[in-house]
Specification:
Blueprint (H helix, E strand, L loop, with lengths): L3 H10 L1 H9 L4 H12 L5 H15 L5 H13 L5 E6 L6 E7 L1 H9 L4 E5 L9 E8 L5 E9 L4 H14 L1
Antiparallel strand pairs: 1-2, 2-5, 3-4, 4-5
Helix pairs in contact: 3-4
């Protein structure tokens, strides 16, 4: 008989090994196989998924999504050549737009400054943010993204600011 409590106890004995396996990029099936071999308990795939979700929650520094996003963007922006820009309304302190570029995206924008395409999604997520992806193409039609922007509201000022930023980056 396999109860969740028994399976939870088997996982807790080998939690450190599981964390290491996950950090090394092991797939869920391999982690499940390892835990079954080591513990001898009848574990299920759902147990491994729950354990990974729990490990992910343990890594959160803050329980507030806004704080976590800010920390994530700050860490991303500190990477070599990466850029993050946040448009925030000073009166309301609400964020209206977040743009981000990797170092590779910035190099591609400099390499092909004239061939700019813009792809926009419309209300494809729960928060109804719009994703604008700026892309350049070479003479063979191959494209590469050069900037992504999450936008709350499409205002003329904001879209013009995004295009100005993109032109200056290239």
């Amino acid at each position: 008989m396999s109860t969740p409590a028994m399976r939870r106890h088997a996982k807790s004995n080998h939690h450190g090994s599981s964390v290491l396996l996950r950090q090394c990029g092991s797939k869920r099936k391999k982690i499940l196989r390892y835990l079954k071999e080591v513990s001898g308990k009848p574990l299920q795939q759902k147990d491994v998924e729950n354990m990974i979700a729990e490990m992910r929650r343990e890594t959160y520094i803050s329980s507030d999504d806004n704080v976590r996003v800010s920390e994530l963007l700050q860490n991303f922006g500190e990477g070599p050549g990466n850029a993050v820009r946040i448009f925030r309304d000073p009166a309301t302190s609400l964020t209206s737009c977040i743009t981000f570029q990797t170092a590779h995206m910035r190099r591609m924008a400099r390499k092909f400054p004239d061939a700019l395409c813009i792809d926009a999604t419309h209300e494809t997520n729960l928060n109804r943010y719009r994703l604008f992806s700026f892309m350049v193409t070479d003479k063979f039609g191959s494209g590469a993204f050069v900037q992504h922007a999450l936008i709350d509201e499409e205002t003329k000022f904001l879209l013009r600011s995004l295009l100005d930023l993109e032109m200056r980056a290239g």
